[in-house]
Design brief:
single chain; 5 strands; mainly beta
Length: 124
Amino acid sequence: MASEDVKMKLVFVNDTNSAEIVVAMTTLVSDLKTRIQEEFWPATLPALETVERVRLFAGGREIGGKDDDTKNLRDAKIAVVTQGPTPVHVVPVLKTGNPSGGGATSVAKEGTSGESSQCFCTLL
């Protein structure tokens, strides 16, 4: 492993699978996501046909993003762990079946969905 390489431990959310991968810091985020989908995608996760995009998180920050996948890992300022592999959480964003809205499924913010919250907290 060269000094410009980073060893990552891919942790797939809501799944028990993980994998290790070594990539160069000059690798584009989009290329890393493609490689994960082609070589490391667990059969227990939703089929790739149902996935709109993949989100990657390391050190509490998203790597790339909708419009930032053209950066390389160095420019994305990935937090590299020096002792052992760098944990990278892999989050699939599923396609919606809504023909009018299209796009990815998203979580509605509290109070914007028109449904009441289950929280009975009182703000003082």
